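Note to self: keep these together.
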Amino acid sequence: MPRFPDSPTSALIHAASKGGKQYDKRSADAERRSTRRGQVTREDLEGPYPGPLDTAPSAVELSTPEYDVDHDPFDHDPTQPGPGQRWSTWRSVAKGQRGPAPLPEWVVTRDAAIDTELGILKTGKEADAFLVERAVPAGADASSDGGPDLTLDQAATRCLLVAKRYRSLEHGQFHRGSEYTEGRTVRRTRDQRAMEDRKSAWGRAVSATQWADAEFVALREAWSAGAPVPYPVQIDGTEVLMEFIGTEETDDLGRTQAVAAPRLTRVRPSDDLLESYWEQLTHGMSVLARLGFAHGDLSPYNILADGERLVIIDLPQVVDLAANPFSSDVLLRDCRTVCDWFTARGLDVDADALFADLLAQAF
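Structure:
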């Protein structure tokens, strides 16, 4: 899987000796090969490594993170990725691993594009989200076309994406997985059997990708059906690339910053906007119900308030309303959680009525 670069290929290894400290210069690649031979690699279990710009904050999440994107990542050599960069992975994944049609005009599809990691947006129970810029450097050979509906001249040359990278089961903190995965199946029976064997390295690797696959499929279907969710650009192993929800702002010094949309729990909307938010949210929940889904973890923390529109995020734990025996309880919990937030702000809503309406639409 193409990924952001690791540490240099050689490293200084500290070794203790009777005479004090000594340093032995070894090849880091050789060291990794000697310890990983015959094993599932960390990349298989955890997805692509974060680049050298990975500096996770101490807080669990940042509600409105800001990153300086007024930079020139191509000042070293426009023909090769630099530190914290990689070639665009758009062409390295199969068509079924890309977002649904129609492809938005802002998605960069050119072969010459380079992905630059700008920083971390959020840490979560099962995955971390990073801000990534995909851009074509000036003067680069834009050899690919602009997509199915765009000419080369019309194609976008820069966009901001969120790279959501799932951890292995050992490194995750999500402990209610069986409640959500009950009734799910995978395409290959050997993978299904492996997942049931938690002691198997391959089974753990397949289970790690299950969450990424579930979110990507749910985003594809929900976006195509008109639900207010981020556009899913592509999936590559345990990394899901999706639309960045937010704005870019320029300060008095001319510096451009990417500002993520705040979570619903942090906004104080007017009465009119509160009613609009409720209509948008119930529409999104209705779309998911008609697709046979319940979000599974819907709350004001998993809803972004992008100006006057709401965007539902974090869908890896979507529940199949027909196959999952816990689906009714999960859906009712979603309804009560969101209704509590709106009720606390003065809007008269009924969780039980919403629950009954969603069930009627689902079946």
